[in-house]
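Below is just one:
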Amino acid sequence: MSESVKDAPPKSRIDYEAYEKTPQFLHMKKTRNRFVVPLSIFFLVWYIAYVLAAAYAHDFMATPVFGSINIGLLLGLAQFVTTFAITMSYVTFANRKIDPLTEDLRGELERMEQR
């Protein structure tokens, strides 16, 4: 088999670049972005605040809470907790909101391909 045939993209009847501009696709992207963008900004601010506090607020981060556990350690563990919480909330959101929209889009694309 020649290289040009092996590397050629599969033939399709669908103009995917045009399909990305359809109202249904744009609605799915807008729905996803309304959830993802604020949550991403929140997490980045929270992470940067933690790093800055660790770098510049040594006394605050070293404040003991109980025993040898200090605020810095608790905030570091909270980073892991928020990461898991964000992941679980996105999975829940995607299952409820995004997946039904993508199923509709996939069905429409499959119908278009069969024509």
Summary: Residues 25-114 form one domain. The beta strands are 64-66, 69-70. The mean pLDDT is 91. Residues 33 and 39 are 10 Å apart (CA to CA).
